């Protein structure tokens, strides 16, 4: 796997550089592209080895400013855009790199063809999608549509999840249904038209984020992936599964670092004495991302048709002495739980 975090940082040069600096930069880089930034860190453009060759053939001097060979307004993607979108754009534009920028147009990463186009290893493990929730917070959108069928970029959230899983080599899916489950089953059927196999388990009443697993009938004694049906993410499900196996865990929970900044300065006191100040501090906590890997033995800790949420299952496993671990994820992630989340998801995919 290419260490893109290291490579993209090495590919940045200032707009005050000369063409010979760009030549050296491209020689030192294996990704065949440079990102040129101004003094504030804003992306001004990109330079490829092809740009350098054409410039030199046209008589540009090695001591000329890089602005003379700069490709302005390059194709970029916002931070949070999926690798699948990057792959589609690369194929359409016949390019091998797409810079990732934040809302200030500062480079924060790089999508590389060698990374996004790798054929996935086929996985026999099940991927189970909890798609039975009512989505009360998303009303009125969910009054006539189950939450996983709400559209983002013209297709249901659930379809995005299945496509992401398929891109990671998962082809066997199970959807847990309750609220308006027939609409999900009518749309996906057996999954063959989507290139996967889909079966269904049906809750007679809401069983929580783990309770529906008690209805599973497993054919193989191997770990399975579970994801909430309202989570859009670019997580590598295969790497999550490999992490779970490497740490020999009974259950693994994907977690994300969530930061909250106080809007006020914090005063530190002991008794009535002021001991210090902290201006608008940021507090960080790991939150449950709604994505898990479980061993098949975890099902014995569930009571059939009894409500259970996933944190409760993890607590049962811990109290029984089993190892449960956290998988720190850094990929784009969005829990589509509120109307503003749905709006943001659609806005993000249009950028």
Features:
351 residues; alpha/beta; CBS-domain; Spore Coat Polysaccharide Biosynthesis Protein SpsA, Chain A; 2 domains; 7-stranded mixed beta sheet; 4-stranded mixed beta sheet
Describe the structure.
The protein is of the alpha/beta class. It has 11 helices and 20 strands. The protein has helices at 4-10, 19-28, 49-57, 83-93, 113-116, 157-167, 181-188, 208-211, 237-246, 310-319, 339-350, and strands at residues 12-14, 33-37, 43-48, 71-72, 77-78, 97-101, 107-112, 123-130, 151-152, 155-156, 170-177, 197-202, 224-228, 231-233, 251-261, 266-270, 273-278, 282-294, 324-328, 333-335. It is globular and about 75 Å long. The model has no long low-confidence stretch (mean pLDDT 86).
Q: Indicate how many domains the architecture comprises.
A: 2
* Number of DSSP helical runs: 11
First-to-last CA distance: 28 Å
Question: What can be said about the biggest beta sheet?
Answer: 7 strands, mixed
Q: In CATH terms, what is the fold-level topology of the largest domain?
A: Spore Coat Polysaccharide Biosynthesis Protein SpsA, Chain A
Low-confidence stretches: none
Q: Which percent range describes the beta-strand content? A: 25-35%
- Please state the structural category: alpha/beta
> So, CATH architecture of the largest domain?
Alpha-Beta Complex
Number of strands: 20
State the CATH superfamily name of the largest domain.
Answer: Spore Coat Polysaccharide Biosynthesis Protein SpsA, Chain A
């Amino acid at each position: 796997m290419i260490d893109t975090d290291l490579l993209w940082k090495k590919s940045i040069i200032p707009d005050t550089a000369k063409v010979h600096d760009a030549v050296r930069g491209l020689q030192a880089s294996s990704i065949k592209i440079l990102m040129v930034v101004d003094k504030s860190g804003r992306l001004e453009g990109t330079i490829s080895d092809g740009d350098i060759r054409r410039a030199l053939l046209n008589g540009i001097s090695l001591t000329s400013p890089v602005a003379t060979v700069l490709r302005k307004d390059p194709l970029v993607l916002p931070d949070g855009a999926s690798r699948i979108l990057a792959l589609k754009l690369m194929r359409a534009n016949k390019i091998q790199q797409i810079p990732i920028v934040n809302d200030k147009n500062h480079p924060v990463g790089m999508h590389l063809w060698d990374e996004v186009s790798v054929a996935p290893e086929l996985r026999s493990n099940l991927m189970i999608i909890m798609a039975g929730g009512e989505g009360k917070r998303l009303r009125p959108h969910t009054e006539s549509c189950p939450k996983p069928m709400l559209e983002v970029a013209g297709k249901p959230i659930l379809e995005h999840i299945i496509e992401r899983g398929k891109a990671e080599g998962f082809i066997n899916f199970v959807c847990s249904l309750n609220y308006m489950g027939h609409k999900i089953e009518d749309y996906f059927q057996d999954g063959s038209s989507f290139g996967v196999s889909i079966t269904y388990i049906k809750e007679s009443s809401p069983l929580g984020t783990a309770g529906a697993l008690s209805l599973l009938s497993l054919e193989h004694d191997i770990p399975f992936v579970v994801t909430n049906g309202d989570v859009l993410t670019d997580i590598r499900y295969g790497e999550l599964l490999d992490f779970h196996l490497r740490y020999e865990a009974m259950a693994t929970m994907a977690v994300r670092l969530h930061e909250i900044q106080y809007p006020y300065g914090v005063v530190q006191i002991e008794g009535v004495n002021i001991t210090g100040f902290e201006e608008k501090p940021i507090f960080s906590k790991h939150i449950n991302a709604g994505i898990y890997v479980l061993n098949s033995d975890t099902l014995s800790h569930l009571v059939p048709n009894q409500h259970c949420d996933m944190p409760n299952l993890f607590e049962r496993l811990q109290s029984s002495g089993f190892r449960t671990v956290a998988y720190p994820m850094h990929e784009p992630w969005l829990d589509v739980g509120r109307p503003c989340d749905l709006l943001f998801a659609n806005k993000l995919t249009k950028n």
